inorganic diphosphatase (Pseudoalteromonas peptidolytica F12-50-A1), 307 residues
Amino acid sequence: MAMYVVGHKIPDSDSICGAIALAYLKNQIGEEAIPSRLGDVSPETQFILDRFGFEAPELKMSYAGEEVYIVDHTEKTQAPDDIDKATIVGVVDHHKLGDLTTSAPLECWIRPVGCSNTIIKMMYDFYDVEIPANIAGIMMCAILSDTVIFKSPTCTTADIKCVEALAEIAGVDDAKALGMEMFKVKSAVDGTPVRDLVMRDFKDFNMNGNLVGIGQLEVVDLAVFDNIKDELHADIAKLKAEGNRHSVMLLLTDIMKEGSQMLIASDDEAIIAKAYNVEPEASKVWLDGVLSRKKQVVPPLQDAFAQ
């Protein structure tokens, strides 16, 4: 029986490209695998797939009775809804450990790096499998996306070295320039429904029994939100009520200024204030130097909920 390789709900480029790259590796070493996804691809991810000639993986929402290899998370809130009825055979991730559990031993590749595709590159090296040029290209782009073209505090030497190696395989002369093209695609928000923007890169977390949603929009200039910021703020309040969440935050991240404005809808803003040592004004706050949800936003908030 073939395993399905799948990332998290509302998949980003790491989840989609990682599923494709890992499924190819597994097939090369004699383990039948099919890449899949839990949602629509983002404009950035579509740009990457088009650039290197890939179709999006199969959209598959149910995995009951299947073998599943999880990419880019270990959180039940981000996994398939019926993951408890599936057999998890492996995990590749670069986040904190979540609450997924298994009844049998599994393969785990978890490293404190900037992107799951960096780990998948290490897996290719371990198994001594040659990476095709087009797969190297999407892996490289996923790393550039997750590390914000090496600006994120999550970026490591391993991420940079992997991008350099993958760029050579893919025949890309200027990886950073391609990364900027990707972020310009991310910055094109005109005409996109507000809810689609809020959900473009959105993750739910269980924080001490409280459901907390955190979205992020990374752009090259926050001015693109000037005419819709109030609408975005109103929509996260609606999303909070619809999902019975304690809080929903939306990070508007300026990759050039290297900081984020956080829009907040919360039952208790004091927790947010405590987490980041700031005082929100009109349910907004600027977080200087904050680029990473994984490293700079989730951990202090989780700690604040635990106190």
User: Anything to note?
Assistant: Residues 13-28 form the longest helix (16 residues). The chain has two domains: 3-184, 194-306. The chain is about 40% helix and 20% strand. The mean pLDDT is 97.
